[in-house]
Description:
Elements: H1 3-10, H2 14-20, H3 24-48, H4 54-70, H5 75-82, H6 87-108, H7 116-138, H8 144-159
Helix pairs in contact: 1-2, 3-5, 3-6, 4-7, 4-8, 6-7, 7-8
Amino acid sequence: MTLGHLAARAGVSKPVAYDHFETRSRLLIELxxxxxxxxxxxxxxAMSTGERSLDETVEALAAAYITCAAxxxxxxxxxxxxxxxxxxxxxxxxxxxxxxxxxxxxxxKPYSASSPAELERRCIGLVSAGEALSAAxxxxxxxxxxxxxxxxxxxxxxxxxxxx
Length: 164
């Protein structure tokens, strides 16, 4: 998967590809970022239309996150695998996790009594839990339904008011 091959697949010349992306890794990084950002934005937009109960919102959020994060059959994971071991990938992965945290904050804000800072901290923990549950699913330690159910329970717990 050379930059020249990727340019040919995109229907552009090698010089065009090299003008925009100095290296194959840079192209893959931008593709990785674009795919993830499109997914997160599509989910956030879908959740902002219509009214949903707390339960409907939490179940949709949990199921979508687990399904997306555990899906190893699509181009996102293929691009991620091509970037394995890249320091740049690690930095972009952290950026994409932050994007997910902000999506969780925006989706859960209407149901939270926490301060914005507290909600963001809780969403950081929730996204981390979603990653761990998705990894457990991929390793065969639970089913998709079990992972999504556990994640939904964690999201519900994360929305409870802090003890006083």
